[in-house]
Amino acid sequence: MSTTLLVYLHGFRSSPRSSKAVMTGEGIKAISSLENPFEWYCPQLLASPKESMAMVEDHINRTGADRIVVVGSSLGGFYANYLAEKYDCKAVVLNPAVRAARELAPHVGMMTAYDSDEPFDFRPEYIDELKSLQVEKISNPSRYFLIAAKGDELLDWQEMVGFYPGAKHLVLEGSDHGIADYADHLPQVLKFISA
Protein backbone atom coordinates (compact mmCIF):
# COMPACT_ATOMS: atom_id res chain seq x y z
CA MET A 1 0.00 0.00 0.00
CA SER A 2 1.42 3.37 -0.92
CA THR A 3 0.21 6.69 0.43
CA THR A 4 0.21 9.84 -1.68
CA LEU A 5 0.66 13.24 -0.05
CA LEU A 6 -1.29 15.83 -2.03
CA VAL A 7 -0.02 19.35 -1.33
CA TYR A 8 -2.33 22.16 -2.53
CA LEU A 9 -0.83 25.66 -2.63
CA HIS A 10 -3.20 28.58 -3.03
CA GLY A 11 -2.48 31.88 -4.75
CA PHE A 12 -1.30 35.32 -3.59
CA ARG A 13 -3.49 36.70 -0.75
CA SER A 14 -5.77 33.67 -1.11
CA SER A 15 -6.50 30.84 1.33
CA PRO A 16 -7.35 27.14 1.69
CA ARG A 17 -10.99 28.28 1.43
CA SER A 18 -10.58 29.24 -2.25
CA SER A 19 -13.03 27.45 -4.53
CA LYS A 20 -10.32 25.53 -6.44
CA ALA A 21 -8.71 24.36 -3.19
CA VAL A 22 -12.06 23.17 -1.81
CA MET A 23 -13.04 21.43 -5.08
CA THR A 24 -9.63 19.74 -5.35
CA GLY A 25 -9.84 18.58 -1.73
CA GLU A 26 -13.27 17.07 -2.31
CA GLY A 27 -11.99 15.36 -5.47
CA ILE A 28 -9.00 13.90 -3.62
CA LYS A 29 -11.30 12.60 -0.86
CA ALA A 30 -13.43 10.92 -3.51
CA ILE A 31 -10.49 9.06 -5.12
CA SER A 32 -8.76 8.16 -1.85
CA SER A 33 -9.28 4.52 -0.84
CA LEU A 34 -7.90 1.94 1.58
CA GLU A 35 -5.77 0.50 -1.26
CA ASN A 36 -4.69 3.91 -2.53
CA PRO A 37 -4.88 6.45 0.31
CA PHE A 38 -4.27 10.16 -0.12
CA GLU A 39 -3.17 12.59 2.58
CA TRP A 40 -4.52 16.11 1.93
CA TYR A 41 -2.37 19.08 2.95
CA CYS A 42 -3.56 22.59 2.12
CA PRO A 43 -1.94 25.08 4.50
CA GLN A 44 -2.58 28.79 4.86
CA LEU A 45 0.56 30.17 3.23
CA LEU A 46 2.36 33.09 4.82
CA ALA A 47 3.25 36.43 3.26
CA SER A 48 6.93 35.42 3.34
CA PRO A 49 7.78 33.02 0.48
CA LYS A 50 10.78 31.70 2.41
CA GLU A 51 8.72 30.96 5.54
CA SER A 52 5.91 29.44 3.44
CA MET A 53 8.28 26.99 1.76
CA ALA A 54 10.01 26.14 5.05
CA MET A 55 6.61 25.25 6.54
CA VAL A 56 5.58 23.13 3.54
CA GLU A 57 8.95 21.37 3.30
CA ASP A 58 8.82 20.60 7.02
CA HIS A 59 5.43 18.90 6.51
CA ILE A 60 6.68 16.99 3.44
CA ASN A 61 9.80 15.83 5.30
CA ARG A 62 7.74 14.57 8.26
CA THR A 63 5.09 12.72 6.25
CA GLY A 64 5.34 9.00 5.77
CA ALA A 65 3.93 9.24 2.24
CA ASP A 66 5.51 7.20 -0.55
CA ARG A 67 4.83 9.78 -3.21
CA ILE A 68 4.11 13.50 -3.36
CA VAL A 69 1.99 15.46 -5.81
CA VAL A 70 1.82 19.26 -5.68
CA VAL A 71 -1.07 21.32 -7.06
CA GLY A 72 -0.57 25.07 -7.19
CA SER A 73 -2.63 28.02 -8.39
CA SER A 74 -1.05 31.31 -9.53
CA LEU A 75 1.70 32.06 -6.95
CA GLY A 76 1.06 28.53 -5.67
CA GLY A 77 2.01 27.32 -9.16
CA PHE A 78 5.34 29.12 -8.83
CA TYR A 79 5.90 27.34 -5.51
CA ALA A 80 4.83 24.04 -7.09
CA ASN A 81 7.65 24.37 -9.67
CA TYR A 82 10.17 24.80 -6.86
CA LEU A 83 8.85 21.80 -4.87
CA ALA A 84 8.47 19.53 -7.92
CA GLU A 85 12.11 20.14 -8.83
CA LYS A 86 13.31 19.70 -5.25
CA TYR A 87 11.37 16.48 -4.56
CA ASP A 88 11.26 15.04 -8.12
CA CYS A 89 7.49 14.85 -7.91
CA LYS A 90 4.47 15.56 -10.10
CA ALA A 91 2.94 19.03 -10.25
CA VAL A 92 -0.35 20.40 -11.54
CA VAL A 93 -0.02 24.14 -12.17
CA LEU A 94 -3.14 26.28 -12.58
CA ASN A 95 -2.46 29.65 -14.27
CA PRO A 96 0.98 29.67 -12.60
CA ALA A 97 2.98 32.85 -11.99
CA VAL A 98 6.14 31.47 -13.61
CA ARG A 99 8.07 34.68 -12.84
CA ALA A 100 6.57 35.57 -9.47
CA ALA A 101 9.19 38.13 -8.40
CA ARG A 102 8.48 40.22 -11.50
CA GLU A 103 4.69 39.81 -11.23
CA LEU A 104 4.50 40.70 -7.55
CA ALA A 105 7.05 43.54 -7.40
CA PRO A 106 4.28 46.13 -7.99
CA HIS A 107 2.26 44.68 -5.09
CA VAL A 108 4.71 45.36 -2.25
CA GLY A 109 2.94 47.03 0.67
CA MET A 110 0.13 46.60 3.16
CA MET A 111 -3.15 45.13 1.93
CA THR A 112 -5.75 42.61 3.06
CA ALA A 113 -6.38 38.97 2.23
CA TYR A 114 -8.89 38.31 -0.57
CA ASP A 115 -11.57 36.56 1.45
CA SER A 116 -11.16 38.26 4.83
CA ASP A 117 -10.10 41.55 6.41
CA GLU A 118 -6.89 39.97 7.69
CA PRO A 119 -3.99 42.38 7.10
CA PHE A 120 -1.47 41.12 4.57
CA ASP A 121 1.93 42.80 4.70
CA PHE A 122 3.92 42.04 1.55
CA ARG A 123 7.43 43.36 2.22
CA PRO A 124 10.17 44.37 -0.25
CA GLU A 125 12.49 41.56 0.97
CA TYR A 126 9.89 39.00 -0.12
CA ILE A 127 10.71 39.81 -3.75
CA ASP A 128 14.29 38.62 -3.10
CA GLU A 129 12.89 35.51 -1.40
CA LEU A 130 10.87 34.79 -4.55
CA LYS A 131 13.96 35.26 -6.72
CA SER A 132 15.81 32.65 -4.66
CA LEU A 133 12.97 30.13 -5.30
CA GLN A 134 12.85 30.75 -9.07
CA VAL A 135 13.06 27.67 -11.27
CA GLU A 136 14.66 28.66 -14.59
CA LYS A 137 13.90 25.46 -16.46
CA ILE A 138 11.87 22.37 -15.59
CA SER A 139 13.95 19.19 -15.65
CA ASN A 140 11.31 16.57 -16.45
CA PRO A 141 8.29 17.81 -18.45
CA SER A 142 6.38 14.53 -18.03
CA ARG A 143 5.92 15.35 -14.34
CA TYR A 144 3.99 18.57 -15.10
CA PHE A 145 0.39 19.31 -16.07
CA LEU A 146 -0.32 22.94 -16.97
CA ILE A 147 -3.79 24.43 -17.13
CA ALA A 148 -3.59 27.91 -18.67
CA ALA A 149 -6.52 30.18 -19.47
CA LYS A 150 -6.29 32.49 -22.48
CA GLY A 151 -8.72 34.77 -20.64
CA ASP A 152 -6.39 35.17 -17.62
CA GLU A 153 -6.59 38.89 -16.85
CA LEU A 154 -3.47 38.91 -14.63
CA LEU A 155 -0.89 36.62 -16.23
CA ASP A 156 0.22 35.83 -19.79
CA TRP A 157 -0.92 32.34 -20.83
CA GLN A 158 1.64 32.23 -23.67
CA GLU A 159 4.48 32.73 -21.18
CA MET A 160 3.06 29.84 -19.12
CA VAL A 161 2.93 27.54 -22.16
CA GLY A 162 6.50 28.50 -23.09
CA PHE A 163 7.74 27.71 -19.59
CA TYR A 164 6.57 24.06 -19.69
CA PRO A 165 7.77 22.73 -23.06
CA GLY A 166 6.90 19.08 -23.53
CA ALA A 167 4.60 18.97 -20.49
CA LYS A 168 0.91 18.06 -20.59
CA HIS A 169 -0.95 21.27 -21.50
CA LEU A 170 -4.63 22.17 -21.27
CA VAL A 171 -5.08 25.65 -22.75
CA LEU A 172 -8.54 27.02 -22.12
CA GLU A 173 -10.21 29.35 -24.59
CA GLY A 174 -11.46 32.26 -22.52
CA SER A 175 -11.98 31.41 -18.82
CA ASP A 176 -10.17 33.71 -16.34
CA HIS A 177 -7.36 33.88 -13.77
CA GLY A 178 -9.44 32.04 -11.16
CA ILE A 179 -10.48 29.37 -13.74
CA ALA A 180 -14.21 29.82 -13.12
CA ASP A 181 -14.89 26.57 -15.03
CA TYR A 182 -12.41 24.56 -12.92
CA ALA A 183 -15.03 21.95 -12.00
CA ASP A 184 -15.15 20.91 -15.70
CA HIS A 185 -11.39 20.23 -15.71
CA LEU A 186 -11.04 18.63 -12.26
CA PRO A 187 -11.51 15.06 -13.62
CA GLN A 188 -8.40 15.55 -15.82
CA VAL A 189 -6.48 16.90 -12.82
CA LEU A 190 -7.45 13.88 -10.69
CA LYS A 191 -6.57 11.49 -13.52
CA PHE A 192 -3.08 13.02 -13.84
CA ILE A 193 -2.60 12.87 -10.05
CA SER A 194 -3.66 9.21 -9.90
CA ALA A 195 -1.71 7.98 -12.93
UniProtKB/TrEMBL annotation:
<dbReference type="InterPro" id="IPR008886">
    <property type="entry name" value="UPF0227/Esterase_YqiA"/>
</dbReference>
<dbReference type="InterPro" id="IPR029058">
    <property type="entry name" value="AB_hydrolase_fold"/>
</dbReference>
<dbReference type="Pfam" id="PF05728">
    <property type="entry name" value="UPF0227"/>
</dbReference>
<protein>
    <recommendedName>
        <fullName>Esterase</fullName>
    </recommendedName>
</protein>
